Structures are given as structure tokens and as C-alpha cells.
Amino acid sequence: MKPRFFRSIAAQIALLPAWLIVIFAYLGTIAWTIRISFTSTKVFPTYDFVGWKQYERLFATDRWIISGQNLFIFGACFIIGCLIFGFLLAVFIDQKIRAESVFRTIFLYPYAMSFIVTGLVWQWTLNPTLGVQQTVRNWGWQDFTFDWLVRGDRAIYVIAIAGIWQASGLVMAILLAGLRGVDQELWKAAKVDGIPTWRVYLHIIVPMLSPMFVTATVLLATAVVKVYDLVIALTGGGPGISTEVPAKFVIDYLFNRQNVGLATAASTVMFVTVLVVLAPWLYSQYFRGQRGRGA
Amino acid sequence: MATVSIRDLEIDFGTLRVLQTLNLDIAEGEFIVLLGPSGCGKSTLLNAVAGLLDVTAGQIWIGGKNVTWEEPKDRGIGMVFQSYALYPRMTVKGNLSFGLKMAKTPSEEIEKRVAKAAKILQIEPLLNRRPSELSGGQRQRVAIGRALVRDVEVFLFDEPLSNLDAKLRTELRVEIKRLHHELGSTMIYVTHDQIEALTLADRIAVMNGGVIQQLASPKEIYRRPVNRFVAGFVGSPGMNFVDGTLSLGAGAPGFVLSDGTRLDISGYEFSGNAKDEQPATIGIRPEQVDLKEKGEDATILPISLNLVEPMGADSLVWGHVSGTQFAVRIDGDDHVTTPVTVDAFFSPSQASIFDKTSGARL
Amino acid sequence: MKHMTKAMFGAAAMVALMVGSAGAAEKAEVIHWWTSGGEAAAVQQFAAAFNAAGGEWVDAAVAGGGGDAARTAGINRIVGGNPPTAMQFNTGKQFDELVTQGLLSPLDDVADAEGWKQHINPLVLAAVTRDGKIYAAPVNIHSNIWLWYSPAALEKAGAKAPTNWDEFFAAGDKLKAAGIVPVAQSGDAWTQVLTFNNVLIGAGGKDLYYKIYKDLDVDAVKSPEFKKVADIFAKLRDYTDSGMQGRQWNQATAMIVTGQAGFNFMGDWAKGEVIAAGKTPGTDVGCIPGLGNQEFWIGGDVFVFPVNKDPEATKAQKLLEKVLLSPEAQVAFNNKKGSIPVRDDVDLSKVDACAAQGIALAKAGNVVESTDILISPDVSGSFTDAIASFFSDKSKTSDDFVASIASIVEGAK
């Protein structure tokens, strides 16, 4: 048996590449991005210092404010919608229905599509002169109107709906795995206790699946922060700038509008926001972990 | 308190018949154990009584009421499961009271019943804990408590002790027996463990292949098994079986072993359909053989012994009778030097003789 | 260790690249965003001319966003050290920073040999010249300020081609009444910017245009003249249809080609679509170079040639530069594209009626430089956001619009 010290050295050496990657690839790029956000960089890095100028401009920009609001609306609708629909789909499949695998495939299928394809499909479907609205009008209901896609105050919800359509299957798959893990005797016990099925789901099964819900929420939340291609394909940020999102703001200013300083300021704000949102959760996880070990 | 009556019950799973025209009457306050190997249909029968399975044919009556198509909650039953099936994210108190809340029981009443059940089961200090913070024994008490608070007349136990270690199993077995005395409720208990069956039951229903083989008191089951299956399933170590032929011609009735040895079996009560020269199997329990003294009406059994297994209070001596493996239980203090061939003794009136082909008692 | 491996891989990849490109001489990978029917036909003329001159044209078309996507992809590759042989920009400031960083090769040797300085329109030449050196090959002159109309649709509605904005809206009302979409508009932001510039020059005039885009004069934005422009632009919103969102520019143009719509504000590349549909610009589809105030807007497309370490690639670049501005390729390309050649020593007799109008305006000195020449992409982006956001939200008033443009002009100073 080697002394503990040497074993730990060996382990540290083995971990060195991982540490290097963390320090340079992750922390390094974050630090660089933050540094650049305090410069007047256009396309190529200039290492001057302009203070909070980029940030002041950022928050004076309508489009950025709208992007932030949209991220919030989209995020809330998308996450809640996916969790609810995904759970309902999982429950539906858990009823030991016939042709279960067919339904499972159908529900999961949208997730295999790229956001671009999802976006185009929904764009065609909801385009007032091509899709649902026109179809229904052709059937004879001339007054039928469903033009959310072209309404600035509604288009962001269309994006959320398309997102929900796409990602619910993933939530279903995660939750279905959880539902399948539920002891059958638990169902019998609840039946003997005379608890209605929906209450069993709500009061017993849902709390049991909370780790799965957390996993799904984290996955969905990362999709929310990253949302870009869905917007590009569905509305391109329009009508006007009503469905702009922060990721698109960053990409546009990073490349096409050639203002890297502003783009990095925007990404820094996104990064800090994510940290602020995550901090209480991380803290509670850590705190709970400590208490758990103590018990 | 209520009677349970199962009438001509049949249950099919698809094309597979799991229970075949089964009849069982359980008296008020009786403790019935359904005993049998896995797949014998005992759990299916219990689930049918609970209303968790649809029956194919027949009826189930509880407390004089036909409940065949009633919901489980309306049958006046409480059920305890092998895996405890506690609601994992609720406290013990939540587990006990949830069903009552759903039934819109007044909250004072709930408090009263929970307190009472907790007292009976001695789980009062645990009321605010989660199932994950309890030991297996404590969990099963809570599961029993969940049945208890429902104030039911029939308790159903589905292998409730199988997930526990040996020591806890013994403890809780006693607990259940005490509970039965205290409450006087009708209880149906499914197990594959014959010790539980023998210690707990007023009557045991030994099941195999979807059919009740024998329904009788533990003593009757042990002493006078109706067929070879029951004889072999109950008792540990199992009954010794030696094949041979009946000799009921002239003189005292005899049982001729394959090596020609003739055992005198006068004193065995035949049920009437035994014939001379009939191939048969004689069953003798290990403790029914005496190596030392020839008791009254005992008969001689030549046996060659070759191995001793001391088990504390007693010892098992293994050997052969007419080439068939045979075990004898002796007192732990007695000493046998092996290998040795001796004449042992047994009382034919205690033995069982079965038809060799059908296995039915002769 | 890790770094060494990486370095070795890098070296190996580099060797492989060099060997690879040495094998295929004169191969030119060209990034551009000419993907619609008419545009693709035009770019084929260049490809054919280049291939005929002994090169091998590798097409790298990137669709979307009025060139946004293609420029993003190209700049990424240049910055990342894997430049294409040539890439497209709009005439103007879009490639300024690439020049300052020394990432683009000057083209003066080819320019001198081919007589660019004598024959290319001076405004265009100025737009590609930085510090006395030419950094891009202008391939066409595009004019964004065109109002296209469908004579058939107007006739059906009982209206006639307008000569001022009042007539325009009167015709629009008639079209509406006849169940025809008055203005075919795309939902893409850049097309709405184009519509705005049409209104700004047509209704506001050349001076106002320069005050805003060149002088960044806030007072001009707050002037009654600009308010009038804003009002007209606001009113235009009521003459578009609900299918605007999600419609591409070429689909919008197609609507007037087929007579489904009356008017379409679009650059002269719309002619490419008209020709591709087998119609004649000027007769089947009418053209007005600035309603109310006729000006020839000088914009267009250029190709830049990123600095390259590989001599073979540099050779391909030189050949391509020469081919792009050869008189034959110029005529062939521009006839398909709908734009006019940058050279004046080519045969202009074959240009269509609309282009002839443009050339006449240019000769008379009625020209304006494109916004791409006047403002940086950053400022241009802010204008785009404000214009698109206003145009697609009818709850915003023209005063809101004036305020938002004023703040952009203020901030851009």
C-alpha cells in the first residue's frame, strides 16, 4: 500500500488536464469576455478601457430590454408548459395503453428535430395567409382569426408553443422513466385507501418524481438561455423586434453588426443573470448537502 | 367483525387460469393463512378479495355483502404489502391520515384514530418522520397502522414480513399475533413461510396450482396432510418419503420397501381406499423416529446413519432407508457415532401413506 | 504533452491543407448570399467566366437575412484563420475593420493593369478605397430606391401609376377596395429599412437623407420634413397584408409580378425576379426610382480578397479579380442581376428601361450614396431595429418613431 500522499499526487496529476481545461477553456474565456466588455472593441480586440459605456448603451437599447423580457416570458411559458405537457404525456403512456411504443416515438419525435425545422414547420402552420387561419377560412369560417405569429404582442407565445411542442417529449421520457420506477404496490395501497387516481399522481407520484422534475427543469432552462435558432426560424426576431432574445442580440452584434464590445457586455449580463438565478439554488443544494451529511 | 366468503371464484390472466373454482369460508375474527409456493395463486386470491383484480367468475362476500364488484375502499378491508408501499414524500402521520382525508373524515376523528393506531403499534415518536428515516420494521408498523386507522373489519396481509431480517420477522410476527388478539378482526395472511403460517393461523389454506390443497388447523395440516404436496411443503426439514408397496393380505398390514424390508404398519388408520399390492409412499417426519426406545405400538425401521448435523436444541442425523435419503431429529444432548446401521422405531399411527401416482393420502 | 500533441496535429493539418490546395490550382472558394432564382442565375455568369479563364469556382452561398448570415460566416472564417478566396460585402463600411486589421489584400496591381481607375464610377471607387488603396472589387451598382408596381393590378383596380405620395395612397385605397394587396412587403427587417429609405428620399429628399445619415444631425430628425416622412412611413403600415411576417423579399416581389399586389419597394435586384419570371421590367412591371424625388442610389456589392499565405490561393484571387471586372462578365452578370455595370467602357445599349432611367439620373448627378457607405454596421443595426420595430407595431405613432431615430442619431455621433 502506497502512502496516501503519493496516491493523491497521482490523482492530482491525472486530473491536471481537466483542471487546465477548466481554467483556460472555461474560466479563461469568461474572464476574457468580461474584460472585452469594458473596451470599445468593434471586430478585433482593442484593450482600452471605456468603463461602463457598453453597459450603459446596452440598457439604453430597446432591443436589449425587449430581449430580456422575452427571455423571461418564453422561459416561464416554455418550462412550465413542457413540464405540464410532458407529465401529462408520460401519465398517458403509463396507462399501459396499446401501441405504447408507437405513441412514445411520436411524442419523442419532435425532440429529434432541430429547432430550425421546428421553427419552419410552425412558421408555415401559423402564417395567416398559408396555414391554419387560411385553411379554416377556406372551410367557410371567414371570420376565423389566428394571427399570433404576426402580432408583436403574441408572437413570443407562439415561439413558446413551438418550443413546448418540441421539448415536451423529452420531459415525457424523463418522467416516464420515473413513473415506471414507481412500486406497483404503492398503487394498490392508494387504491385500498380509496385515493382517486389524479390525487395519487398529484400528491404521491409528483413529489416522488421531484428529482426528475429538477433534472428536466435544468435541461429546459439551459435551452431557454440558449434559445436562438427557434427564433431565427420562426420569426427572425420579428414582427419588428418583438421576439428578439438575448442570444440573438449577442450573435448579431458579435458578427454582423460588428460591435464585439457591446456583444460581450450583453453576454456578461446574461452570465451574471444566470449566476444570480442559480446562486440561491446552488447555495440551498450545498446547504442541504451539509445538513444531510450531518444527520 | 366480518366473515369472508369466496364462492366458486375463478380468475384468468389471458388464457392462463390462475384460480380454479375456489371456495373458502372464513369465520368472523378468524386468522387464515394462505400458504404455498410462489405462483400458486395465493396473492392473486388476496388481491381478488381486496378488489385489486377483476374476477372472471364467482363471488366474494364480505360481512354478508356481495362485494365482487365493489371498489377496494368500499369493501371494509385494510391491506399491508410486502414492500410496505408507504407514500414516500409524506410523514408517518401523513401516511396514516391521507386516506381518511380523502374520505373526508372530520379532522378530530382523524387525530383520534391516528393517535390510537400509533399507540397500539408503538410508533408515536415516529409520527413526524419520513419513511426514508425509518427502519424496515418501523415501516411495516406504519403500513399496518395505515390499515388500522381505516377501522376495517378485515385485514389483508401480502407477505408482510418477507423483506425483513430473521430477527425482526420473529418480533413482528408476535406483534401481528398480539394485534389479532387485541382487535379480534378477521385476517387473511399470505405467506410462503410455513413457520409464519403455523404460528399465526387459526386455519391454514395450503395452495398449489390455483387450488386449495388442504384447509385445516396448523396441527391437522402438520399431522395429517391430505396429500404428498402438503406433506412435503409443511415442516422443516421436510418429511421423509420412502417408496414401497402396501401388503394388506394375510396378517398385520405391512409396507414393503424396495429392498424387501417389510415394515409393520398396524395402527395406521387407512382412509378406506387402500388396496393390496398398491405402490405407495410412506411419509415419516424426522422427529417421529426414535433411535433409542421402542415406544408402545412402535414399529422397527432399519436405518443406516452417516452424518450428524448439530443444531443446538436438537440435531439432525442423516442416513438412508432402503437407499432413500432419510433424516432423523434427535435431542441435542444425545450422541450418535456414525456411520452405523441401527434399528430405529416409529409409530405408524403418526405416519402418512400416500398413493404413489396421485399423491393422495391412503 | 497535451500542447505538444496539439501543435503536432496543427502542423500536420497545415501540411495537409497546403498539399491539398497545391494540387488544385486556381481554385476559388467564394462566399456570397445570392441565392434567389434571379441572383443565382447572375452569379452563374461569374462562375462560368472564371471557369472559362482556367479557374475552378467553388460556390459557397449562404442564404438569409439580406446577407447577414453570409457575412457572419465569412468574417468568422477570416478571423479564425481559414479565409475563403473571396467573399461578398455590400459597398460601404462593412469591411472597414478587416482593412484596418490588415486582413485584406489590396487590389491596386490588378486595378492598374485593368484600368479600373479610369472606367469605374468615382463614387463607387471611393467606396472601396481606403488610404489610397483599393481593397475590394466592386461588381455592380445597385440602387435600392425603387418603387415597383404592377400595371395589371393597378388597371384592375382602376388606378394609375402615382407621381407623388398622395396619388400613391389614393391608388392604394383603390387596390384595397378591389381586394388586391396594395403593398407587397416582406417581414425581414432589412426590407423594411429599404422601404423607409425609399420614403426618406422620395418624400424627404436628398438633403434630408444626407443630414441624417452623413451629418447625424439631430435637428434634421426633429424637423417637420422628417415628421412628414415618418407620417407617410406610418401610413404605409395600413397598406400591407397580414402575410408580411415570414415572407421573403423575392416572394413579395413575386406578388407584383403575378399581379397579386400593387406596389413593392425593393432594390433593382427585383428585376432579376421579373426577368426570371419571363417578364420585362419597365413594361410588365413598372419602376419608379424614388417617388416624388428621383435619385439614383449608389450601393452594390463588392468582393474582398482576404490575405492568404498560400501562393496558389493568391494566384486564384488575382485571376478572380480580373475576371469579375472584365467587361464581358460585367455585362453578363449585371443583365441577369438587374443592376448596372460598374464600368463605363461596356456596352450599355442592352440595359432595360429601368436601368436606363437609373443611368440617366446618375449622369445628371442625381445620386446618393448608400447607407452602407455612410454609416457603420453597428449604427445601421440600430436604425434597422428602430425601423422594423416601428413598422411592425401599429400601436407606435410617428412621434415615437421620430424620438427613437433621434436617440440613435444622437448616440451615433
- Any low-confidence stretches of chain C, pLDDT <50, length ≥5? 1-24
Looking at the structure, what is the overall shape of chain C? globular
| Tally of separate domains of chain C | 2
Distance N to C terminus of chain C: 51 Å
Principal-axes geometry of chain B comes out as elongated
Identify the CATH homologous superfamily of the largest domain in chain B.
P-loop containing nucleotide triphosphate hydrolases
Describe the 3D structure.
- The complex is a heterotrimer of chains A (295), B (362) and C (413).
- Chain A has 13 helices and no strands.
- Chain A is an all-alpha fold and 295 residues long.
- Chain A folds into two domains: 1-29; 63-245, MetI-like fold.
- In chain A, α2 packs across α13, α3 runs parallel beside α7 and α7 (155-180) packs antiparallel against α10 (210-226).
- Chain A is flat, with a radius of gyration of 24 Å.
- In chain B, α2 (92-102) runs parallel beside α4 and α3 (107-121) crosses α4.
- With 362 residues, chain B is α+β, with helices and mostly antiparallel strands.
- Chain B folds into two domains: 4-233, 3-Layer(aba) Sandwich (Rossmann fold), CATH 3.40.50; 240-355, Beta Barrel (OB fold (Dihydrolipoamide Acetyltransferase, E2P)).
- Chain B contains eight helices and 20 strands.
- In chain B, a hairpin with a 2-residue loop joins β4 and β5 (65-66).
- Chain B has a six-stranded mixed β-sheet, sandwiched between helices.
- With 413 residues, chain C is α/β, with parallel strands linked by helices.
- Chain C has two domains: 2-141 and 299-356, D-Maltodextrin-Binding Protein, domain 2; 147-298 and 367-412, D-Maltodextrin-Binding Protein, domain 2 (3-Layer(aba) Sandwich), CATH 3.40.190.10.
- Chain C has 21 helices and 13 strands.
- In chain C, the strands form four sheets. In chain C, strands 2-1-3-12-6 form a five-stranded mixed β-sheet. A four-stranded mixed β-sheet of chain C has the order 8-9-7-10. In chain C, strands 4-5 form a two-stranded antiparallel sheet.
- In chain C, α13 (224-236) crosses α21 (398-412).
- Chain C is globular and about 65 Å long.
- Chains in contact: A-B, A-C.
- Chain B: Residues 4-234 form the ABC transporter domain.
- Chain B: It comes from Kaistia soli DSM 19436.
- Chain B: It is a peripheral membrane protein.
